[in-house]
Every structure is written in C-alpha cells, then in structure tokens.
Design a protein that fits this description.
This protein is α+β, with helices and mostly antiparallel strands. It has one domain (about 40-185): 2-Layer Sandwich (Peptide Methionine Sulfoxide Reductase, Chain A), CATH 3.30.1060.10. About 20% of the residues lie in helices and about 20% in strands. The strands form 2 sheets. It has a 6-stranded mixed β-sheet, with helices on one face. Pfam families: PMSR (PF01625).
Length: about 210
C-alpha cells in the first residue's frame, strides 16, 4: 500500500484495549497532561506534520496551559508510533493544546497553525510523506468548528488558487503518543524539526 493512500476501517490494524503509556508531567511547565479542563479552558487537536516541531510551536504561545502529542483521525485504538508510521491505522500525528480562553483565543492559536505549515500538500508535509503527516483540525465543540472553517476560508483567500487540503472534523479520539515523544524538542534540542512556514500570512484583520 502506498503511504499517501488513506486506508478504510476494515484495513486498519486491530490495536489494543489499553493505553500504550502512562504520561509524565509536562517536561517544561510540569502541568498534568491528564488534568480535566476548568471553566476557563478549552482544548483543540491539530495536525500539521511531524508532531515534535509542531508541539514546540504551541507550548511557546501565550495563554497555552499545556501541550501533548498523540494520534487522531484514524481507526486503530491505542496505536503505537510504529503502527501509525506504517499507514495502517489511519491516524495523523497531532498536538493537543489546552489554552486559557481569558488569555488567548482559538483564532490566535489557529493563526500559528495555518502560518507554520503548508496546508495544501495532502498526505505529506515537506519531506515527510504519509497519511500520518496530513493537515487536520479536530474540534471539541460547535463554536470551534465554525471558527476553524472561517479561518480556513480567510487563509484560502490569502493563498489564492492553491487549494487547502486540511481535514476539519469533530474530535473522535485522542491517543497519547509514547512518553519519549512528549515535548521531544525540549528534551532533545538538536532533534529533527520539519515544521517551517508557507510564507503566506493571515490578513491583518483576522483576530
């Protein structure tokens, strides 16, 4: 099977019933990755290529409480990294971002999302090729879905004729990736980072 071809549910690996790892506190700010959201917090799950560099983009943003990396958008329960890389789970590499709505907004977070990867490449991101590198926004409520679609439309206008391939859908499941992937570039400062930018920015009127 070609790495850029999305599988169907009946082709997916069976996975497992239990999580593959118990998460440690966030390597940088020691936040609890399992903590329930409080009344001022929201979470959003974003895929924009290799999740090592993607996560670093977001833990640096004002108002972000915690970040973690994992797998979403596929069929296999509790997949391993090797299974996801095989293309036989349907998942993409994602970052889960918890943010304080009194300090930042989803639109501000999505500005970083759109500007720091190329959302037009389909099942790849730069030299990283495969369905696990596809662009995706997995929302956790209806308001987030509307904002995601609005920002996509505005960014499409900025791009012109090149079509955006980003998947926008309600979050089904988020599976934590293995502990060594969490905050990887803080633990390994010289590690690989495939995240760059498109060279196209949002219109200045977007909040």
């Amino acid at each position: 099977m070609r790495k850029q071809e999305m599988i169907s549910a009946d082709q997916a690996l069976p996975g497992r019933d239990n999580a593959i790892a118990n998460m440690e506190p966030h390597f940088i700010n020691q936040s609890d990755l399992y903590a329930p959201l409080n009344a001022k917090q929201e979470s959003i799950v974003l895929g924009l290529g290799c999740f090592w560099g993607a996560e670093r983009l977001f833990w640096q943003l004002p108002g972000v409480v915690s970040t973690s990396v994992g797998y979403s958008g596929g069929f296999t329960p509790n997949p391993t990294y090797e299974e996801v890389c095989s293309g036989l789970t349907g998942h993409t590499e994602v970052v889960r971002i918890v943010f304080d709505t009194t300090q930042t907004s989803l639109a501000a977070i999505l500005r970083t999302f759109w500007e720091k990867h190329d959302p037009t490449q389909g099942m790849r991101q730069g030299n990283d090729i495969g369905t696990q590198y596809r662009s995706a926004i997995y929302t956790t409520n209806n308001e987030q879905a509307e904002i995601a679609k609005q920002t996509q439309q505005q960014y499409q206008q900025a791009l012109g004729d090149t079509g955006i391939t980003t998947e926008i859908a309600p979050l089904d499941e988020y599976y934590f990736a293995e502990v060594y992937h969490q905050q990887y570039l803080a633990k390994n400062p010289n590690g690989y980072c495939g995240i760059g930018g498109t060279g196209v920015c949002f219109p200045p009127e977007l909040n």
